[in-house]
Amino acid sequence: MVFILCLAACKNSTEEQETAEAKVNETILDIEPEIEIPEEVLEEETEGSEETEAVPKSIFDIDMSMVYIKKEDLDESEMSKLHEILDNNPELTETNLITDIDTEYGLNLQSLKSHLSKSDETFKAVRDILELNVAPASISMGYEIDGRERIREFTGSPTGGFMEDMTEYYMFKGRSAGKNALRRLGVASDDNVVPILLEYFEVSSDELDLLKSFPGTERHSNSLAAKAAINFELSSRVTDHLKSSKCSEGFKYAIKFFEKRQIKESKRFMLNAKKAKDAFYKLNPGWYGEDDDIGITYIDSRKKYIYLPFGALSFADMVISHDTGTEGSNSEGVLGEPDMALENFRLKDPRIGNLGINGVLTLEFTNNALTDVNGPDLYIFEMGKIEPTRLEISKDGEDWLDIGKIEGGTAMVDIAEFVKPGETFNYIRLTDLDTWSTVPGADVDAVAAIGGALRLNIDSAVLFDTAEYQLKESATSELEKLLEAVKEIPEGTIIVEGHTDNVGSPQSNLKLSENRAKEVSAYLKSNLPEDYKYAIKGYGETRPVVPNDSDENRQKNRRVEILVVPGNEKK
């Protein structure tokens, strides 16, 4: 949970002003926006300017007029201090804000300064604000972020779906109503979450339960979510209830609002997703997935659309190592699909990997691989400002190829001039180049191979007897699974690699690995269409995935790996 400290000096507008503003905004929202999203990165979307780089450590984030402080920075003594200040100095509280310590409180900062010196050893968070040399008229502390998390827990959805949209966005019941509901949810006990939602939506408990499954209508993180929203149909329970005399006016209003908002944003996302897909296949005609609806388009924090033919398989899967440098953290936050593109950027969020100043992060693609396609080959979903980072790639995690520096307004990388056609790489290494901003070092949400190759791994013990290379009869079921996986890519190059442990001589292991690769390749050839080219490689004991220091690890190193590189007109 976090406190939100608003550095705005403005007062609340009157109800009449809010109503007029809502009507104007609703009118604007009814106009279909332009589909084209500018690709350039807007300056105001970066993490911070030079003026805000020296941010005190307890500051959680600075975003335009908002300063966020981690709740952990307020210990019991600091909370007690704040209680004492409020109890003894009622003039500090602004009359137009809720003053309950458990919901929200507004403090006049200038008056607070007279009660709290910069050297005060308690309440360090506010002292840090004073040291920023800003002069806001007041501090408003709220809990909107935590309120969104409570809605996500209640709905069981990582995005909170329709319920979160309708509290976070002003168009449903007005800006103040949604904001107050979020703040109340942020500090509510578990028993009070449902009553707050019932009051806000003005529905019954059964109706609230019906709304839980409704998808979001205002934003989507990828084309699958947008498509699901477009195809979402009201259940018979909902339609029957709408005809019932027990149906509340609040529920009718919510459904009407949902139907009004549902299609617009989803269609806009899908139009942009199609543009991204078309752009990829214009450069790569004939590449995997062109005629099929299997790829996924993602959106990043800069509203850029990235089409990935392998979809969720495209992302880095494992952290090999992370030298966190200065203040690096959350290594696992870089793995898998991006999950922060639609979130307000917060520092030290576990869903984001922070490289740290001079930090070094090594990642592995386990079920896919990086390969060269026409156009960009690697996309780094970086949050906030794109900070200078050195990129290296490797086949085995030992020998590295220096691609150079990632910087400027894009996180796309083309490896074409550094690699040979058809080469695949399983590892990447990112090194922060000593750039300090609001968060020390680059902040990575996900890393994706744009074209990529399918990577399959089979334990040799399933296929072969010890020291043998003829396929066992019992291997048939695993080989049939392998065939089905390969068929997902209708044409291309199949690279079969054999690997052993370090038992025996290097020469015999090399020969054994090559023979095993040939045997698997021959099986694939005889059972697949003639739309593939084949390459056979025996590596012996030279590319272990783990140290050969136990029976368990040696078994992991005895394996056959298959890489399927889609075909296109480039190669």
Task: Characterize the structure shown.
- By secondary structure, this protein is an alpha+beta fold.
- It folds into 4 domains: 2-142, no CATH class; 145-273, no CATH class; 301-451, Galactose-binding domain-like (Jelly Rolls, Sandwich), CATH 2.60.120; 456-566, 2-Layer Sandwich (60s Ribosomal Protein L30, Chain: A).
- It has helices spanning 15-29, 76-88, 109-115, 124-130, 144-155, 161-168, 175-187, 190-201, 205-211, 223-231, 236-243, 249-283, 460-463, 476-486, 506-527, 551-557, and strands at 2-6, 59-63, 66-70, 105-108, 138-142, 296-299, 305-308, 318-323, 353-354, 360-364, 368-371, 378-382, 389-394, 400-406, 412-413, 424-425, 427-432, 443-449, 453-459, 492-499, 532-538, 559-566.
- The strands form 5 sheets. Strands 16-11-19-22-20-21 form a 6-stranded mixed sheet. Strands 2-3-1-5-4 form a 5-stranded antiparallel sheet, sandwiched between helices.
- Helix 5 (144-155) runs antiparallel to helix 6, helix 5 (144-155) crosses helix 7 (175-187) and helix 10 packs across helix 12 (249-283).
Characteristics of this structure?
6-stranded mixed sheet, alpha+beta, globular, 5-stranded antiparallel sheet, Jelly Rolls, 22 strands
Total helical segments: 16
Instruction: Indicate the CATH topology of the largest domain.
Output: Jelly Rolls
Strand order of the largest sheet: 16-11-19-22-20-21
CATH homologous superfamily of the largest domain - what is it? Galactose-binding domain-like
| CATH architect. name of the largest domain | Sandwich
Estimate nothing, just give the exact number of structural domains: 4
Q: Span between N and C termini?
A: 52 Å
* Low-pLDDT residue spans: 1-71, 92-110, 129-142
Main sheet makeup:
6 strands, mixed
Structural class: alpha+beta
Give the helix proportion (percent range): 25-40%
Number of strands: 22
- Give the strand content: 15-25%
Silhouette: globular
Rg calc:
28 Å
What is the residue-averaged pLDDT?
Answer: 75
Task: Specify the CATH class of the largest domain.
Answer: Mainly Beta
